[in-house]
Amino acid sequence: MKKDKRLFGKILMIALIIFFYAPIIYMIVFSFNEGKSLTNFSGFSLKWYRHMLESRDMMESLYTTFSIAILSTLISTVVGTITAIGLSKSKKVVRDVVEQVNNLPIMNPEIVTAIGFMLLFITFQAEKGYTTMLLAHIAFCIPYVILSVMPKVRSLDPNLADAAMDLGATPIQALLKVIVPQITPGIVSGALIAFTMSVDDFIISYFVTGQGVKNLSIMVYTMSKRVNPSINAISTLVVVIIMVALLAINLIPMFIAKQQERGKGNAATAIMIGVATILIVVSAVGLSIHGGLKNTNKPYQGQTLRIYSPGEYIGENVIPQFEELTGARVVLELFDSNEQMYIKVANGESYDILIPSDYMIERLIKEDLLQKVDSSKLMNMDFISEEVKGLAYDPGNEYSVPYFWGSVGIVYDTTKVSEEELLQEGYNIFLNEKYKGDIYLYDSERDSFMMALKALGYSMNTESEEELQEAYKWFETCVTTMAPEIVTDEIIDNMAQGRKALGIVYSGDAAYVMSENEDMGYFEPMEGTNIWCDAMVIPSNAANVELAHEFMNYLCDYEAAFDNSDFVGYTSPNEEVMDELYGEGGTYEGINAYVPRSGYVNDESFVFNERTRKIISNLWSKVKIVASNVN
User: Fold this and answer.
1) pLDDT for the residue numbered 58
2) 593 shares a domain with 564
3) Residue 490 φ/ψ region, left for φ over 0, alpha for ψ in the -120 to 50 degree band, beta for the rest
4) Between the CA of residue 336 and those of 128, 201, 446, 536, 564, what are the distances in Å?
5) What is the CA radius of gyration of the chain?
6) SS3 at position 384
7) C-beta separation of 513 from 496 below 8 A
8) Domain containing residue 182
9) Which of 390, 476, 560, 597 is deepest in the core (most CB within 10 A)?
10) Helix, strand, coil shares of the chain as percentages rounded to 5?
11) What is the phi/psi pair of residue 602, to 5°?
C-alpha cells in the first residue's frame, strides 16, 4: 500500500513538472525554428536570435525590464524594511491602520491600481515614460516587502536594540549590525518577491508608460498580435537570465558561508559587490543601446518623432533607415485597438503621427483632434494609388496619407471547401452544419457584425436597431449550432497549419496564410465586404509637425513602401510596390488576398456612428457570452 502511494506521488510529481515546464520547453524549441510558424518546426536556425539582437526595440525592452526591476527592488526593499521596523515601534492604532492600508494594493485588482496610477500622473501632468513606470513599480512593490519583513520583525526580542545600545552601539549600529542581520531572510524574501513582481508586471506598466518606453511584457504582448517567432527568442533569453539569477541566489550564499567559515569574506560586502556588478552590466547595456546615432550634420539631427501605431505593423528596416537618413530619433509606441489609441489621444497624450483606421480617422476629424496635412510637403503622394485616395472618411485627403489598405474576407482550406460553395452561400456558409466545429469567428465587433449584416442583405453601416438585432440573432444561431472558435490573431498561424476549414480574416493576414500553405484560399463574398484603409495622420497637439511630414513623404516612396508591405503583408498604397509584390516573382505572386477588389457595388467602408457602435459593442458581448455558455 505504501509503495502504491509512493508510486502515485512520483507520477503526480512528474505530471506536474510536465504541466508546468512543457510550455517553456516548447517555446525554447520553437525559438530555433527555421520557419515563421509558431507551431510547425521546419528546421534548426538561429535567425530569430539574430533578429532579436538586431532589434533595438527588443533590446531596449530588455534593458528597461531589468533596470527598472533592479532599481525598484533596491528602493522598495530599503523603504519597506525601514517601514516595517518603524511600525514595530509605533502605537498599535497606527500599526493597524498602516497594515490595512498596506494590504489594500495587494488585494486590489491590478487593473484598478493601474488606472489609479494613470490618473495620478495625468492629474499632476507628469510626462509618462521610464520615470513614471519606475515610480509605479516602486509603489506596488513596497507593500510586498513590508508583508515579508513584518513577521521577522515581530519575532524579534523587543529589547534587542536596547541591549545593543546599552553595550555601546549607536542607534544606526544597532539597526545595521543587530536588527537587520536578524531579519535578513525576510528582507531577501521581500526583495525577491519585489523583483519578480516588477519583471512580471504588464497591466500597471501598460497604463503608466509613454515616450515609447516598453518593458518585456508590453513588448511580447504587442508582438503576439501577429506571427513573430522572435517572441520565442526573447522569451527564451528571459528564461535563461532568470535561471542564472536563481542559480546565483542559491549558490552565492553557500559560497559566502564557506568563506565565513574560513574567516574570509563578508555577506554584506558580497551582496553589495553582486548588486554593483549587476547595475554596471545593466548600465553598460543601456549605454550601448541608447548611445544614439552618430553626430552628423543631417537635417533633423537631435530631433524626435513620436509615432503611435498598431502592433507589428511596420517593416523592420523602415524606422532604422529613416533615422539614418534624417538623423532623427523615432519613438514608436504600439496600440492594440483604435479605441485604445483614441482614449490616449483624447486625454491629451502628444504624438506626431498616428496610424488609425478609416472610421476612427473620421471620428478624430469630427472632434478636432487632427490637423490638416501640408500637401506641398508631400511630394511622393503622386505614387499613391487612386484606389485609396479621396475615400469617404477624408474625401480630399486633407488630413490623412494612406498607409495600408485591404478587405475582410473568408480564408478557407481548398481541400475541404469549394469556391462554388462560397459563391452560392457567401457568409451563410458559417451556418452550414457541414462545417460544425470547423470554423473560426474573428473577435472584432465591427467586422463580425459586418459579416452578419451582409449575410442578411443589409448595409454594414445600418443605423436600424431592428436590423442590428437580426444580425445578433444570426450570430446566436451560428454560435449555438456551429460550435465556432472565436479568436483574434491566432487565426493566422492556425489557418496556415490548416487547423479548420474556414474563418473570417483580414486580407493581409490571409496573404501570409496563403504564402505559407498553398492549400489555402481567400474569398470576398458577393454580398460585399469591408474595404478598409489605415492612414497616417497628425494630431492637433503634435510637437514635431515638420518631421511628421518628412516621415509621411518617406513612407510614400518606393523603397520604404516596399519594405513595409513586404514585411507586414498588407497591401501597399504605393501602386508600383503593389504591382511588383503581386506580379511575377513577387512575394505575393498570384495570392489574390494581397490585392483587394475595388469598385464592387456591394463593398463599403465603415462610417463612424457612436450610437451604432455602442449597440454593436453590447450585442457582440452578448454573442460571446452565449458562445461561452454553449462551450
Assistant:
1) 83
2) no
3) alpha
4) 19, 18, 15, 16, 19
5) 29
6) strand
7) yes
8) 57-289
9) 560
10) 60, 10, 30
11) -85, -10
E-strand ranges in 425-544 read 439-442, 485-487, 502-506, 520-523, 531-539
**DSSP structural state of residue 549:** H
Nearest to 181 by CA among 102, 266, 297: 266
Contact present, 157 and 206 (Cβ < 8 Å): no
Q: Which residue has the cell 523603397?
A: 559
Buried b (16+ CB within 10 A) or exposed e, 372-382: ebeeeebebbe
241 and 226 in a common domain: yes
DSSP letter at 530 equals: B
Give dist(CA 157, CA 373) in Å, integer.
72
Look-up of cell digits 488576398:
593
Which residue's entry shows cell 508510486?
7
The whole model's pTM is what? 0.76
Taking Cα atoms as reference points, which of 379, 435, 388 lies closest to residue 552? 379
CA distance 558 to 340: 31
Looking at the fold, whether 449 and 539 belong to one and the same domain comes out as no
Looking at the 3D structure of the chain, how many domains does it have?
Answer: 4
Collapse the DSSP code of 276 into the 3-class scheme (helix H, G, I; strand E, B; otherwise coil) and give the result: helix
C-alpha span between 141 and 80 (Å, rounded): 9
Integer Cα distance of 405 and 578 in angstroms: 11
- 78: which 3 cell numbers? 530599503
Picking from 544, 564, 582, the residue at the C-terminal end of a domain is 582
Q: Are strands 502-506 and 485-487 parallel, antiparallel or unpaired?
A: unpaired
Asked which of 101-105, 269-273, 466-470, 594-598 is least confident by mean pLDDT, the reply is: 269-273
**Number of helices followed by number of strands (H, E) in the chain:** 25, 10
- Over residues 538-560, the pLDDT tens digits come to 999 999 999 999 999 999 999 99
Assess whether 603 and 524 both reside in one domain.
Answer: yes
User: How many Cβ atoms sit within 10 Å of the Cβ of residue 39?
Assistant: 15
Candidates 595, 535, 603; CA nearest to 394 is 535
Q: Report the DSSP beta bridge partners of residue 604.
A: 530
pLDDT in tens, 414-442: 999 999 999 999 999 999 999 999 999 99
